[in-house]
Design a protein that fits this description.
By secondary structure, the protein is an alpha/beta fold. The chain has a single domain, classed as Rossmann fold (3-Layer(aba) Sandwich). A five-stranded parallel β-sheet has the order 3-2-1-4-5. The model has no long low-confidence stretch (mean pLDDT about 90).
Length: about 160
């Protein structure tokens, strides 16, 4: 499967998910910056996929990442991050969002399951009030983009 088929607009994804729902398939959603893709991300995505039939990844746009992480992030531009995610077997669709939180895109896509990493509590997760099933996947210890960046910076001094 070509990765470009997995990179879709929000409008296109709404249509795709309507057809998936007609087949009684479960749609799983997770989101994040996914800047400097690492083993912890892969673990999260593979576990997320295990909760349903289709995995949709909401990817923070470059402007959204800057709002959340600061002016020096993202390290990689959104199209590169999207292509890396789309190349993964576990990921069915990648869609950008510009907002700081995925609230609006969750409202539009209405996934069956929402997955977040273990640094969240259920009551802190945006969308937990209207998504039918919300799961927290434990993080892989020692694997984080912030940690990778800190290590690179400390070793370059």
């Amino acid at each position: 499967m070509q990765t470009n088929n997995k990179l879709v607009s929000r409008t296109e994804l709404v249509r795709i998910l309507e057809n998936i729902r007609k087949e009684k398939k479960r749609v799983v959603f997770t989101n994040g910056c996914f800047d400097i893709l690492h083993a912890g991300h892969i673990d999260l995505l593979e576990k997320a996929k295990s909760y349903g039939d289709y995995l949709v990844v909401g990817l923070n746009s470059d402007s959204s990442v800057r709002k959340i992480k600061g002016p020096h992030r993202p390290i990689f531009p959104e199209i590169d991050r999207a292509r890396l995610l789309a190349a993964l077997e576990a990921v069915n669709y990648v869609v950008f969002f510009d907002e700081e939180t995925p609230y609006e895109i969750l409202r539009q896509l209405r996934p069956d399951v929402l997955i977040k990493g273990g640094d969240y509590q259920i009551d802190e997760i945006v969308g937990q009030d209207f998504i039918p099933e919300v799961k927290v996947v434990p993080l892989v210890e020692g694997k984080s983009t912030t940690g990778i960046i800190a290590k690179i910076l400390s070793e370059s001094e």
